[in-house]
Amino acid sequence: MIPFAVQKLFFYFWKKLMMKIRGCLFCQIAAHEKPAKILYEDEACVVFQDIHPRAPVHLLVIPRRHIASLNEDLGKDEALLGHLLAVAGRMAREQGIDGTGYRTVINTNAEAGQTVFHLHVHVLGGRILRWPPG
Ligand code: 5GP
Ligand code: ZN
Asked: Is the CB of 116 under 6 A from ligand 1?
């Protein structure tokens, strides 16, 4: 039996290799080249439903421009990062999960479970979310 941590690392490098071969999935969604249930878009960001929802509401808020993760130097992108969070909050209100509560998550790199290397904010809600996350 392969340990979970090794499986995760393998998956991480596999996803990175796939992105090199096939290009960035979320760039393709933002450009409407790949299908997704898009709920909102503007000049800076796109919001769509996660294909494997982990909660009754599970949205992804992404910048239109390719940014791999928070590990990039984002000094010039503070307004964009703020915009992503403002849109996440607005989407949560629209989805009716603001009162009960919701979680915004940004996974960065292997040990956090990042599998798509285009920055995205998860918006999860509609059920009780345990803490700390696994
Ligand atoms: P991460 O694990 O990188 O934080 O989150 C990536 C998310 O993207 C996952 O929750 C996964 O379900 C979602 N995802 C992966 N591929 C697709 C896709 O083709 N379409 C959509 N809508 N979501 C995807
Ligand atoms: Zn991208």
From this structure: yes
